[in-house]
Amino acid sequence: MNLLEREDALLLPCALHYTEHGGRDYPEEETSRTPFARDRDRIIHSRAFRRLGYKTQVFVNSQGDNYRTRLTHSMEVSQVARSVARALGLNQDYAECLALAHDLGHPPFGHAGQDVLHMLMQEHGGFEHNCQSLRIVSRLEERYMHFEGLNLCRATLKGMLKHPRVYDCDTQLHDILAERKSGAPALEARLVDLCDQLTYTYHDLDDGLDAGILDFDEVRELPAWEVEEKLARRDAAFARSRRPVQIRVILRQLLGRWIGDLTETTGEWIRTVGPGSVQDVYALPPERYPVRLSPTTEESVQEIRKFLFSKLYRHSSVLKMSRRGENILRELFSEYLARPGMLSERSAMQLNSHGLERVVCDYIAGMTDRFALKEYAYLSGMDQAVL
Ligand code: MG
């Protein structure tokens, strides 16, 4: 039995098996790592992955050292997804790989950055972070002599397609897109998507409270917060703890409950629906798709998301941070569009094959918050300290 067969023997029949990695566009000899472990390592070693450390999740990187960045968010999603995949008998390496790659395409300044780039690219194919993630791993990363991108397995690329969409100009992905359009995603892909939602709901509450933007008394009114009462009754140490510790204990309990619910509910559905292979999973209609939360937990998570939307994402200080980010990116876009000679050497080399607007968009989307700020300050002749 070789490595892949041995690893596959540990998985549920409906998991994405290692032997179904789909090959790579540029054939390579496989190593002692599984194909998805190798893809995961390629993602971790990429430049785009390192830059996530200086990209906004909700708070701009310069606002404080304790807030989540895209990098720590991706690591938290990966940790949760890996644990759930393992408990269910799904493919851990595959889940980990998809989780670490899921936000690679985010531009600086979070969703505000995405919205303004999409608006600026309206006549040129638009901008969307998931399409951008696929573009980065299949074309923009420059680490190998014989091919562009990271030459990931076809199953990895397919799993990364959160929505069935890629840019028209990314013809290298069109056959994978057609495959993805023809059925439901693998269980691990949907699992990562749900773990992403649970993780940011949990850590945005944490960061919002930490920043003093969310009002503790209002958070306390959320039905999910009832766990505080139980904790206080069960353990006298809880009442004696400082409030920040109490908040962390409560949030940890919340996330733990959600993960437990996701594992249990999905496990039950897998047993009920009983898909015998990943091909069966691809053919499942949405109402029988097994990766899900129980209705009660789903409702509780949605309620917190609604709360975060109105009290955190729409808070005046977050809106102001977003607006500043939008203005900076709009200005940089018009500067580089008017003077492509200022682009990096690598970007300038792509002008003929990718077109001016797409190259400028890739360059700006690839920037970290702090690099975009620095560029903006430099070009406008401003002292960066005032930014
Ligand atoms: Mg995410």
Please state the CA-atom Rg, rounded to the nearest Å: 22 Å
Overall spatial form: globular
By oligomeric state, this entry counts as single chain
According to CATH, what is the class?
Answer: Mainly Alpha
Task: Characterize the main sheet.
Answer: none
Number of helices: 21
Assess the beta-strand content as a share of residues. Answer: under 5%
Specify the CATH homologous superfamily.
Hypothetical protein af1432
Provide the structure class.
Answer: mainly alpha
The number of strands is: 0
Task: Name the poorly predicted regions.
Answer: none
Count of individual domains: 1
N-C termini distance: 60 Å
Question: How much helical structure, as a percent, in the residues?
Answer: 55-70%
Hetero groups: magnesium ion
What would your notes on this structure say?
The longest helix has 31 residues, at 243-273. It is built from 21 helices and no strands. It has one domain: Hypothetical protein af1432 (Orthogonal Bundle). The radius of gyration is 22 Å and the shape is globular. The N and C termini lie far apart (60 Å). It is mainly alpha-helical and 387 residues long. The structure holds magnesium ion. Magnesium ion is lined by residues 73, 102-103, 196, 200. Magnesium ion (MG) binds at residues 73, 102-103, 196, 200.
Summarize the entry for a quick read.
This protein is mainly α and 387 residues long. The chain is built from 21 helices and no strands. The longest helix is centred in the middle third of the chain and has 31 residues, at 243-273.
